[in-house]
Amino acid sequence: MKVLFIVQGEGRGHLTQAIAMERLLTNHGYHVTEVLVGKNLSKRLPGFFTRNIQAPIKQFSSPNFLPTRSNKRANIPYSLLYNLLKLPEYAESMRFIHQRIKESQADIVINFYELLTGFTYFLFRPSAPLVCIGHQYLFLHKDFQLPASINRTELFLLNMFSRLTSLGASKRLALSFRSMNPDKKQNIFAVPPLLRQDIFYQEVSQHNYIHGYMVNAGFAENVYEWHKKCPEVQLRFFWDRWEEEPVKKIDDTLSFYQLDDTLFLRQMAGCKAYASTAGFESICEAMYFRKPILMVPAHIEQECNAYDAMQNGAGIIDNNFNLERLLEFTKTYQPNVKFTYWVQSAESIILNELESLVPTHFEEQMYMVEEFI
C-alpha cells in the first residue's frame, strides 16, 4: 500500500512523528512514496530529519507563526498579516500538494498537522483517504480536561486551526498520554504517542545535569539569568538558533546546543531532570525515560500539553525556567509506570486504525460508482 506524508515542518514534534510513522509502516509492508514538508523556505530542515527519513523529501511554502520581539511567544497579529500577504504563494503550494497526491497514486495520505493539507482536501477533493495525526486533536475530544484558567479566545483559535488542518479527514488520530474512548461525533480516536525507535535503544541513567529544550530561543536569557545565581548546577539546553555554532559553551556548566536528535536523546536519557517549553513530543520522551519535568508553556497549545502532562504525573508547570523548583520536585517525583506500557502499544493500535480505514474507504468509492451507474 502506498502512503504519502505531509508534515508541518516548524518545531521538532511533527518531524519526529513522521520519522517514527515511516519506520512503523515500512516494517509492515507499506511504501511511503514521498514526504512533503511545509515550512518557511528560508529555514533549513533539521539534519536529524533529512538523515532519518528514507522517502524522498519535497518542501513547499506554508504558513508559520512569527515570534514576538522577545522571541518567546508567537506574535499573532503580525503572523496573520505576514501570512495574508503570502496567500498567492500558499495557493501554489496547495496545487503542488494536490499534484503530488495524484502523481504518487497514494492509497492513503497521512497529515502531520499541516494547515494547507486541509485546504487542499477542501478545494480539490483528492480521492485518497486522509488521516490526520497530532496531539492537538485531543483538545477537540469531548472528554478532554482543559485548564480552568485557559484563554477561551485562544483556545477557540487553536481548535479552529486544528479543524482546518483536518478538513476532509476520514479520521483524526489524537496522540494522547493515556487511553481514552473514541469521540465518534468528532471522528477522534486516541492513540499512544508515536516515539522514534531510537528511544527504545537508549541506555537510561541519571547524571548530575539538567537537560532542556526551548522552541523559542528568547528563553535562553531566562536560563542564563538563573545560571548566574546557581552556577554550580550543570545545564545542557538545546535550541533552534541555527546561526550559532553547534555547541555554544557559555562556561564549564552551561552549554547551548543546536538541535541534533541523536545527541538530544542521549542527553535526555542521562539527565537528572528535564526543562522544556512543553512540546508534546519531548514531554513524552522524558516521561518514557522516567525523568521529572519542568514545563514552561510558550503558547496556548503548550499550556494544554503541560496541564494534561501534569494530570498524568509528568511534572510541574511554571511561567519561567525556574530550575530551582524542578530540582525540588525531583525529590518527590514518582514516574507514571502505566505510560510505558501505553507507549509500547502504539504500533498495534495505530496500525489497526489505519487498516480499518482503507477497506471502508474503498467500499464507499465502489458504492458511489454503483450509484452513478
Describe this structure in words.
- The protein is globular.
- It has 13 helices and 14 strands.
- The chain has 373 residues and is α/β, with parallel strands linked by helices.
- α7 links the parallel β8 (209-213) and β9.
- The model is unreliable at 360-373 (pLDDT under 50).
- The longest helix is centred in the C-terminal third of the chain and has 27 residues, at 346-372.
Strands, helices and their partners?
Blueprint: E1 2-8, H1 13-27, E2 31-39, H2 47-52, E3 57-61, H3 76-85, H4 87-104, E4 108-112, H5 115-124, E5 130-134, H6 152-165, E6 171-175, E7 188-191, E8 209-213, H7 220-229, E9 234-239, E10 247-249, E11 254-258, H8 261-270, E12 273-276, H9 280-288, E13 293-295, H10 300-311, E14 315-317, H11 323-329, H12 337-344, H13 346-372
Parallel strand pairs: 1-2, 1-4, 2-3, 4-5, 5-6, 6-7, 8-9, 8-12, 9-11, 12-13, 13-14
Antiparallel strand pairs: 10-11
Short description:
With 373 residues, this protein is an alpha/beta fold. The protein contains 13 helices and 14 strands. The chain starts with a strand and ends with a helix.
Comma- or semicolon-separated keywords:
13 helices; globular; 14 strands; disordered C terminus; 7-stranded parallel sheet; alpha/beta; 373 residues; 7-stranded mixed sheet
